[in-house]
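ARCHIVE CARD
Drawer: 12
Card no.: 0347
Subject: one protein chain, sequence and derived structure
Cross-reference: see card 0346
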Amino acid sequence: MKGFLTFASEAEIVALWGAACIAVALVALIMERRRSKRTSIDNVGWVPWTGLFLTFAVLGGALLVVSIPAVIRG
């Protein structure tokens, strides 16, 4: 992995960051679904999962859209 990152272009690194943001967004989506299906209505969480999901999904999507043409070209 170290050798890959050494020779990776900037577009590939941006694509990796975009994929990581999408992964974090999916985790936030799962946690929001888990919170909405809780049995005890009094246990309200303090983490804004919906806001985190939207932030990371938009950021990850933007990073992927910017980097995909350069990654395809090589």
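Annotation on reverse: Residues 21 and 59 are 7 Å apart (CA to CA). The helical segments are 2-7, 10-36, 49-73.
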